[in-house]
Design goal:
Largest sheet: none
Shape: elongated
Number of helices: 9
Number of domains: 1
Number of strands: 0
Distance between the termini: 83 Å
Structural class: mainly alpha
Radius of gyration: 21 Å
Amino acid sequence: MTSAPVRTKQHSHLPRWRHPVRLIRDNARAYILLNIAAYGLTAVGFVLGIVFPGLQAARVDALEGDGTAGLVQDLVLTPPLFALVILAVNIGKVGLGFIILPSLVVPFAGLGLFAYFAVETGITLAPTSPIAWVQLIPHSLTLIIELQAYILLLLGAWLLGRCWILPRTVGAPNRRRGYLRGLRSMAVLAVPALALLIVGAIWEAYSLRYLIHPLAEWLL
């Protein structure tokens, strides 16, 4: 008796670095919606900070109160160290604290927490002086890069929640298997997210050190 030829999965021979691309492509609608939400909520916070300067002033006071503003002033003249600190904060506080760890405990929790963070970030970045508008020029690229990294983590959190709650939609026999499959997807997306956070931290540190002053002299 001859057996039927075994079919291989369509994407099984893709190189490992293309797996994140496959996940994004297969979940394009969720990825687009997460982009709209992340950038949109940041823009909402930005507008709120401009319209209501008291909100932005409160954020500045909070950053000065917890030592963040002072730390930035101390490190800005040492870009390599500053980049490491930025990266540590973005990974530990935002990536892990707001997105990954909450989503490991409660499905989709990271999405809600990040929504709050996005609005708060927009308020913090709202310029209230001419020099602040100048700082926003290079920092806009930083924001685009870092938000894109967080969006990849948010997509991972969304996939984890979906696999966890509806395991059969991804071919998993039970929620435990679905959870593990979601974790795998999150780990795959975390690799390019980390790469983007590294690029964003380097750009932020060096642009603040070397671009703000010449831009201010040219534009103001």
